[in-house]
TrEMBL record:
It comes from the Bacteria. Its cofactor is pyridoxal 5'-phosphate. The gene is aatA. GO terms for molecular function: transaminase activity. This is Aminotransferase. PROSITE patterns: AA_TRANSFER_CLASS_1 (PS00105). It comes from Methylobacterium jeotgali. Its EC number is 2.6.1.-. Belongs to the class-I pyridoxal-phosphate-dependent aminotransferase family. It catalyses: L-aspartate + 2-oxoglutarate = oxaloacetate + L-glutamate. Keywords: Aminotransferase, Pyridoxal phosphate, Transferase. Residues 32-392 form the Aminotransferase class I/classII large domain.
């Protein structure tokens, strides 16, 4: 349609949303579908956070907030970074946006010029390349590989950096692979970045609190303080506080960048929802007791899913450190035929046939830039996960 912007033709639709929609349609037609394609915790927002929002409404905190966020939330963000990451930021170095996604989008919009390159390790969260393209930049993909547990290696980082590189986007724990960088793994990457002073670091720490076992979370500016002056540390309340619908994300970084993001935001949203911001103050400053409960539940589910998927013929599933996703390879099953006579040529064929045959919705890895794999979200009940994995095992065993 000639009326629409050319930029739209350069952007891909979200495969995760498409898969969720397909599953929804099948369910509506009466099929018993288990969806493993969702990207949000199945827990409810903790009660004290909801109460803080109700009280904010009662106090009349219902007017336009400052564009960069209400000061009490920006102060809570400063405290959070100090307490949890050992990072020292001033209030003027923080910004609040309408979800983590919007914070990233603003950072890119405020900085990218045509021809600027953004390094994105794959597999990546589906939105990164599309946001870069929408902002006029060029995504440059860095390879990771299952043999490295989907983690970027320093030599590959060195290889993809060019004079045009403006940003690298790091995401740990990762959506879609669940992989998370230890302090030492991250240090090897920050050492490379120290040699390239023109490259800025956008670190998406959205899943910081969802790590399992004795894994210790680390973030680039903490691992290498020398990078602080060119790092945007982004985080949010969506995943750790089960607040996806409240739409609050935040970031901290050098003041000129934050000012530019504020400038962009002032002509877009005029700031994030005031009531949600008060709820986020309670999330960051309040008790973190729910986190132990979330983590224990997710760890149990991760272990269940990894174990059952590794018993499925032809699937290989590494054990990731965090988030609520696993990313098994289905490479051995490519070329096999379903009972209905369809040849599985790609991971997309695999998820489509799996949905048709067994009513299990997963997302194909190629949508995240690395396949043949599947992304499976385990943010659902143990009972549903057990049933879904049993069906996946049956489907894999049925392929000839
Ligand atoms: C890696 C990653 N970053 C950012 C976001 C966006 O978070 P929000 O819902 O706060 O916009 C998501 C959500 O799925 C995510 O997986």
């Amino acid at each position: 349609m000639g009326f629409l912007a050319d930029a739209l033709s350069r952007v891909k639709p979200s495969a995760t949303i498409a898969m969720t929609q397909k599953a929804r349609e099948l369910k509506a037609s009466g099929v018993d579908v288990i969806s493993l394609s969702v990207g949000e915790p199945d827990f409810d927002t903790p009660e004290h956070i909801k109460q803080a929002a109700i009280e904010a409404i009662g106090r009349g905190e219902t007017k336009y907030p400052p564009v960069s966020g209400i000061v009490p939330l920006r102060e809570a963000i400063v405290r959070k970074f100090k307490r949890e990451n050992g990072l020292d930021y001033k209030v003027s170095q923080t910004i609040v946006g309408t979800g983590g996604k919007h914070v990233i989008y603003n950072a890119l919009l405020a900085t990218l010029n045509p021809g600027d390159e953004v390094v994105i390790p794959r597999p990546y969260w589906v939105s990164y390349p599309e946001m870069v393209v929408l902002c006029g930049g060029t995504p440059v993909f860095a390879e990771t590989g299952m043999e490295h547990d989907f983690k970027l290696q320093p030599d590959e980082l060195e290889r993809v950096i060019t004079p045009k590189t403006k940003w690298i986007i790091l995401n740990s724990p990762s959506n879609p692979s669940g992989a998370a960088y230890s302090h030492d793994e991250l240090k090897k990457l920050t050492d490379v970045l120290m040699r390239h002073p023109h490259v800025w670091v956008l670190t998406d720490d959205m899943y910081e609190h969802l790590t399992y076992g004795d894994f210790a979370f680390a973030t680039p500016a903490q691992v290498e303080p020398g990078l602080t002056e060119r790092t945007l540390t982004m985080n949010g309340v969506s995943k750790a506080y089960a607040m996806t619908g409240w739409r609050i994300g935040y970031a901290a970084g050098p003041e000129p960048l934050i000012k530019a993001m504020d400038f962009v935001q002032g002509q877009q949203t005029s700031g994030a929802c005031s009531i949600s911001q008060w709820a986020a103050v309670a999330a960051l400053d309040g008790t973190q007791d729910h986190l132990a409960r979330f983590r224990a539940a997710f760890q149990e589910r991760r272990d269940l899913v990894v174990s059952m998927l590794n018993q499925a013929k032809g699937l290989k599933c590494p054990t990731p450190e965090g988030a609520f996703y696993v990313y098994p390879s289905c490479a051995e099953l490519i070329g096999r035929r379903t009972e209905g006579g369809k040849t599985i040529e790609t991971d997309e064929d695999f998820v489509v046939e799996l949905l048709q045959a067994e009513g299990v919705a997963a997302v194909h890895g190629s949508a995240f830039g690395l396949g043949p794999n599947l992304r499976i979200s385990y943010a659902t009940s143990n009972k549903a996960l057990e049933e879904a994995c049993t069906r996946i095992q049956r489907f894999c065993a049925s392929l000839r």
